[in-house]
Design goal:
Elements (H helix, E strand, L loop, with lengths): L4 H10 L7 E3 L2 E4 L5 E6 L4 H6 L8 E5 L2 H9 L6 H12 L6 H14 L3 E3 L5
Antiparallel strand pairs: 1-5, 2-3, 3-4
Helix pairs in contact: 3-4, 4-5
């Protein structure tokens, strides 16, 4: 069951962001260089999917991520918390990604606001 805005807000206010577990909502393509392209469907409506999508050149929007964004996206698997993802990235990229917690939380917040990810704690 989908939670209301106020219920989601209560969860976010009471929880430590680093303890949340992100989940992907969309499929992706991974290139040989380990760069991710997120595939976002153009339509969710069944009518549009049935009658409009077959006439389109492509049925998805493609969002290409850079090296750091791709590393975060690949770490979002439903098992790692935000803190664990930040530690993995710090180990992989070192000082290049400092301040790691702020950058990772800001990036994941952006993905959440664009409805590309959700958090396991919200879906309970």
């Amino acid at each position: 069951m989908q939670l209301s805005f106020s219920e989601r807000r209560k969860i976010f206010k009471s929880a430590n962001y680093l303890d949340l577990t992100p989940l992907r909502l969309h499929k992706e393509e991974v290139s040989e260089e380990n760069l991710v392209t997120v595939l976002i469907p153009k339509f969710q409506n069944r009518f549009a999917v049935r009658f409009i999508v077959p006439k389109l050149k492509s049925d998805v929007f493609k969002l290409k991520l850079d090296e750091l964004g791709s590393a975060v996206w690949l770490s979002v698997d439903g098992r790692n918390t935000v803190d664990q993802i930040a530690k993995q990235l710090l180990k992989k990229f070192g000082d290049k990604i400092e301040p790691v917690n702020e950058r990772v939380t800001k990036f994941l917040t952006g993905l959440y606001e664009q409805r590309l990810i959700t958090f396991q704690e919200i879906n309970k």
